[in-house]
Amino acid sequence: MSVSDSDSSSHGTDYKFFLQTSRDRLLLEMMGSTRTGDSRSTWKVLIMDKVTVKVLSHCCKMSDITDQGISLVEELFKRREPLPSMDVIYFIQPSKENVVMFLSDMSGREPLYKTAYVFFSSSVPKELVNHIKCDSSVLPRIGALREMNLEYFPIDSQAFTTDHDGALQELYGENAENSRKFDACLNVMASRIATVFASLKEFPRVRYRAKTPDASEGTFRDTIPTKLATAVWNLVSKYKSIPNFPQTETCELLILDRSVDQIAPVIHEWTYDAMCHDLLDMEGNKYVVEVPSKMGGEPEKKEVLLEDNDPVWLELRHAHIADASERLHDKMTTLSKNKAAQVHSARDGGEISTRDMQKIVQALPKYKEQIEKLTLHVEIAGEINEIIRDMGLRELGQLEQDLVFGDAGAKEVINFIRMNQLAKLSEKDLEVVKNMQLLAGSSINKKTTSSSFSLKFDNQKIKHAARKDRTGEEETWQLFRFYPVLEELIEKLSKGELAKNEYSCMNEPSSAVQETTTKASARSSNAPVVPEKKTTPHSMRSRRTANWGKSHRSDDGHSGDAVLKNAALDLRKMGQRIFIFIIGGATRSELRACHKLTTKLRREVVLGCTSLDDPSQYLKKLKMLSEIQAPQQDGFRF
């Protein structure tokens, strides 16, 4: 059994970010490796199961796959037409039923395909390998039999999920530890996390949030991060046999659960990205926009994807919605003025050369594309701002922030409820509050901390503050004050300051490794950073300020944060990666923190989670903690 192995390193001058590495492994390592000899110029069939098709669709587009010589994509368990003159690529999980189906396709006198290149998404049990070897009619028809070890689902350039949307219920629900799903969920989760490190050829120091030292206070829920960390460590340790896999620690992995911060999933995030998913009727990253009909009839509906290959989305996604709206207006104005000036120059004044005219004509398609992109985002931002005004969300957002920072108490909550006629929670809504205590674990019996469960408000406001204003952080936009606990944890992890009694390590690194890590950290901290322009600070504590505040900008009208990220990230000076995994789902504020700290620390911070949730999705899952049936997996689709 050979194991897939990339010749290119993910470090140094060849540094690639998480998503790009995953994409290259599928397109180049897997599909590209089959384009050799007589098979180089021929089209192939790609066959996947329900899990691997989701893996591939999170990493690649259909056009990417076609470029690698794939003419047909099919599901393993659907009836397929024989194509005996074509080669086939199988990208499947190493399960008994999958192997049986593969052997059925390729055995006998009339196999469905000519030559089979088989790639497994995770480690293959020896008994399945022996089962394949026992079929003498299939062996000569196998062009490759390899472990890809790639069974995770990228959702961002620096984030992935294990596709466990029901993890909260299966792991933290009532009597969950007695259910068969408990162990199954943890085992699959650990296997998928482990393939991240196999893919990136990273050997992690595995840290986790430890259970309380006093066992009398603990519950089975406190041991879940420990159980997952142990399972991941056992799997990753075996990867040392993979060619070119590191033998010493090269990165950090911190495993947490939702009890570390129960505020982040329910407080509303005011970034453009979060507002799109929280307020608009979107399915994943799909937004439906109405466009004028070419036939002059009713407007047509068109689906657009808000993703990283859209430069406008990439720039504005983590910006405050008010900042994003202003910058969109400025971009549209600037683009219109520049194009108007070119056209005016062509029509008016002196002569225009043929070369200049050619440049103007060549720029028209690009200009049209830019206008379409900007118009789309202007429309989306306008719809969001309209919802904010109609629903009075600024006042709600301000109250949320003030409660978190101890600037509001029971009086303000009661006044808001009375003014907006909000009261009488239903039984199901009350169940959400009760179920939050299930996630709090033993911490509910301890002194209240920034991460523990508490719904106490009184006139002693500051005593119940769940967050403190961060010193050294420049104040910018109103309602942009909140930060997740994860941000502080990552910074402490990077400095080696995590408390060992709270965050244990499965494998304490050797002194040589610690020395290497310290030097790498010192190199990244001493690297030059683009200076930020100073602006007059704006208070974020004024609840009734009409102006949302102003952000600092660079001379070209772009956000200082965006300029900093683009200019400061010298890939040759990137330090060791930091991986975070959150059991029970992550939030968009935590994803934003990972992007922010990647620039600040000069270390790529990769966020892993069982799912990425908006407040409404998370509350629905909390309701389900006392229900029996977990959410079903999605069907086959690409």
Describe the overall structure.
The chain has 638 residues and is of the alpha/beta class. 42% of the residues lie in helices and 12% in strands. A 7-stranded mixed beta sheet has the order 7-8-15-14-10-9-13, with helices on both faces. The longest helix has 38 residues, at 354-391. It is globular. Residues 1-10, 442-453, 510-568 and 629-638 have low confidence and may be disordered.
What is this entry, summarized?
The chain has 638 residues and is of the alpha/beta class. Helices cover 42% and strands 12% of the residues.
Q: Can you give keywords for this protein?
A:
single chain, 638 residues, alpha/beta, 7-stranded mixed sheet, 6-stranded parallel sheet, 20 helices, 15 strands, 42% helix, globular, disordered N terminus, disordered C terminus
Our Rg estimate from Cα atoms comes to 27 Å
Helix and strand composition category: alpha/beta
Strand content: 5-15%
Could you estimate the helical fraction of the residues in percent?
A: 40-55%
| Main sheet makeup | 7 strands, mixed
Shape: globular
Low-confidence stretches: 1-10, 442-453, 510-568, 629-638
Quick one: how many beta strands? 15
Spatial gap, N to C terminus? 29 Å
Enumerate the strands of the largest sheet in spatial order, edge to edge or round the barrel.
Answer: 7-8-15-14-10-9-13
Question: Mean pLDDT, as a whole number?
Answer: 81
Number of helices: 20
